[in-house]
Amino acid sequence: MSITVDRVIDLYNLPFNKLIFQAANVHQENFPEGDIELATLLSIKTGGCPEDCGYCPQAARYDTGVKPKKLMHIDDVLTAAKAAKEAGSNRFCMGAAWREPKNRDIDKVAAMISSVKALGLETCATLGMLDQDQAQILSEAGLDFYNHNLDSSEDFYGEIISTRTYQDRLKTLSHVRQSGISVCCGGIIGMGETRAQRARLLITLANLNPYPESVPINHLVPVNGTPLSDSKGVDSIEFIRTIAIARIIMPKARVRLSAGRQELGKEAQSMCFVAGANSIFYGEKLLTTGNPDVKNDLLLLKELGLTIKKNNEAVMVV
Ligand code: SAM
Ligand code: DTB
Ligand code: SF4
């Protein structure tokens, strides 16, 4: 049965306590271990992107101070992946500032994926739009997840991106799904959208058939030089509500508390975990912007008595 706007708006309008209680129950039923998944990001190709995504520090057309860098050498990617594993990460996500990869890039990234997987890490990549053949090659290389976000609801999308359509994004998601790779797809909150538009993003995600296995909920990181640098974001309570609703309407997804954790503080992050977030980006850098340091993240998880996912088991943070 598809989820309706009215149902999601009703959830947003619940008293905060009731919403969080409902979300925490759904979380407990579907993830009895309650473990947190740690995913480390690496920007394997940085900046110089031809797209015009209004939030993005890597778009060539905005003066953000990001220095463009060519595709990394596989040895350097493996060094970073080993360090991530050593630090306790479970998943390694390789991101490239491309509109879409060229076929020769796909072969290089496929080699990186196989080697990262051989280290015993889950693999994820986010490389822009993919055609069916490219998705197939990545799948055969051992790619576990492909990240491609819808970013916003369809009716707000045109205000932030003009160089690729919502339909283009849905098409890539369908190629990923067809190739047998698990889907990682979410969006950004705090770009100036209304609550109804946030609700419509969540509904579109939940009504993908099946819904994504991983749902990153990013809080906009406002970057100087981008059109959204002065965006006022959203209040942390609205952000926590959004996480709770994602948990309720996509009960079995890993809901990732993604970009913007530095601004959230430990209490708001803890509320996100109570509301059903069970994954974070782990490591001092996202792609080009900062992320809380590993030491503080482990301290927070320990303080909360939360376990982390390691080789499909929940283990205590030491
Ligand atoms: N170029 C590829 C693409 O767009 O699909 C992959 C990399 S792109 C940086 C991945 C995602 O990062 C975007 O879809 C967006 O959701 C997120 N992102 C980028 N800049 C952000 C920002 N300033 N704040 C929050 N999320 C951001
Ligand atoms: C996602 O949803 N968020 C991550 C990941 N998928 C690739 C990226 C966040 C990027 C934040 C801005 C930056 O560091 O460049
Ligand atoms: Fe390019 Fe991706 Fe940034 Fe858009 S989000 S400008 S496609 S790197």
The helical percent reads 40-55%
Helix/strand class: alpha/beta
Q: How many H/I helices? A: 11
CATH architecture: Alpha-Beta Barrel
CATH superfamily: Aldolase class I
The domain count comes to 1
N→C terminal distance: 43 Å
Rg from alpha-carbon coordinates: 18 Å
Number of strands: 11
Rounded mean pLDDT is 97
Secondary-structure element series: HHEHEHEHEHHEEHEHEHEHEE
Classify the fold: give the CATH topology: TIM Barrel
Question: Which helices and strands occur, and which strands form pairs?
Answer:
Layout: H1 5-13, H2 16-30, E1 37-45, H3 74-86, E2 91-96, H4 103-118, E3 122-126, H5 132-140, E4 145-147, H6 154-157, H7 166-178, E5 182-184, E6 187-189, H8 195-206, E7 214-219, H9 236-249, E8 254-257, H10 261-274, E9 279-281, H11 294-304, E10 307-310, E11 313-316
Parallel strand pairs: 1-2, 1-9, 2-3, 3-4, 4-5, 6-7, 7-8, 8-9
Antiparallel strand pairs: 10-11
The protein binds S-adenosylmethionine, 6-(5-methyl-2-OXO-imidazolidin-4-yl)-hexanoic acid (DTB) and iron/sulfur cluster.
Quick recap:
The chain is of the alpha/beta class and 318 residues long. It is built from eleven helices and eleven strands. Strand 3, helix 5 (132-140) and strand 4 (145-147) form a beta-alpha-beta unit.
Q: Could you walk me through the main structural features you see in this protein, from its secondary elements to its overall organization?
A:
The chain is α/β, with parallel strands linked by helices and 318 residues long. The protein has one domain (5-316): Aldolase class I (TIM Barrel, Alpha-Beta Barrel). It is built from eleven helices and eleven strands. The protein has helices spanning 5-13, 16-30, 74-86, 103-118, 132-140, 154-157, 166-178, 195-206, 236-249, 261-274, 294-304, and strands at residues 37-45, 91-96, 122-126, 145-147, 182-184, 187-189, 214-219, 254-257, 279-281, 307-310, 313-316. The strands form two sheets. Strands 5-4-3-2-1-9-8-7-6 form a nine-stranded parallel beta sheet. Strands 10-11 form a two-stranded antiparallel ribbon. β1 (37-45), α3 and β2 (91-96) form a beta-alpha-beta unit. The longest helix has 16 residues, at 103-118. The protein is globular. The structure holds S-adenosylmethionine, 6-(5-methyl-2-OXO-imidazolidin-4-yl)-hexanoic acid and iron/sulfur cluster (SF4). Residues 55-56, 58, 95, 97-98, 126, 128, 148-149, 151, 188, 218, 220-221, 223, 259, 287 line the site of S-adenosylmethionine.
